[in-house]
Amino acid sequence: MNRKQVQAEFLLVLAALFWGLAFVPQKIAMAHIEPLAFNAWRFFLGGLLLIPVVYWLSSRRDLQPGEEGDATVHHRWRKCLPGGAILGFWLFLGAALQQAALLYTTAGRAGFITGFYLLLVPVIGLSLGHKTNRWTWAGIALALLGLYWLADFSQEAQLIGDLMVFASAFVFAIQVLSADYFVHRYDALRLAAIQFLVCGLLSGFGSLIVETPTLQSAIDSAWPIAYMMIFSTAIAFTFQLLAQRHAAPSHATVIMSLEAVFALAAGWLFLNELLTVRELVGCGLMLGGMLVSHYGNHTGTHH
Predict the structure, then answer these.
(1) How far is CA 289 from CA 52, 131, 159, in A?
(2) How far apart are CA 118 and CA 192, in angstroms?
(3) Is the full-model pTM beyond 0.85?
């Protein structure tokens, strides 16, 4: 493995760590602010923060008419707007489901179930003519078994939360496939900034309609919002984009699955979330399923 590949994989580990840890501030914020209001602040401010990063990184790369010799890649903001808006809509839907689920379930469980999107990407991809193999189906079987072990049918509220997270994983998988389509045609960084801004605006409008947002609730949630906007949005996403230029795709997916492990560890360390032996077995099976699935497969981006 060359030096650039090692650096790239280290950046991916950091991105997975920041995303895994993010479930803690997301959970803590729910004591002070409503889900859509929280998403509005974190994504809109994160999108604004990404704009100077776009110009900084663009100035560092020798961008020809198209990135990496592809003359069909568009780098103008206006050209990137429709694709970014579509990605922003899917991100809004997935993030709303995930954030609302944290009212009912734990940060660790939410992190693990969210990781299911890595398995759903190749499955949904089948309908788009993407090819898959037996490893994917073996991985899905293992992960579904793990999900069954993780589910606690005696606690209705937690089960509702878990199902909402699973629905968000499905939406994130659609978002990943959409991103895979657009990223080969438009500048990835500009798409990212637009998707965050659109997601923030949609969350804001949604919050005004169905919630009662106040400035005080945002102030009370200042540090979770700051973490999400800086580390989970601007830094982690930029690290991922930089890393994917040099990391082996199969390695990248395995590293990204560590997000689930980091989420579980963070929930235990910072929120005193303890898992039963049955739940740990479920998590182990799910992680095993993610790794088995990508033994012969590789996929791309994140929420």
Answers:
(1) 39, 18, 21
(2) 19
(3) yes
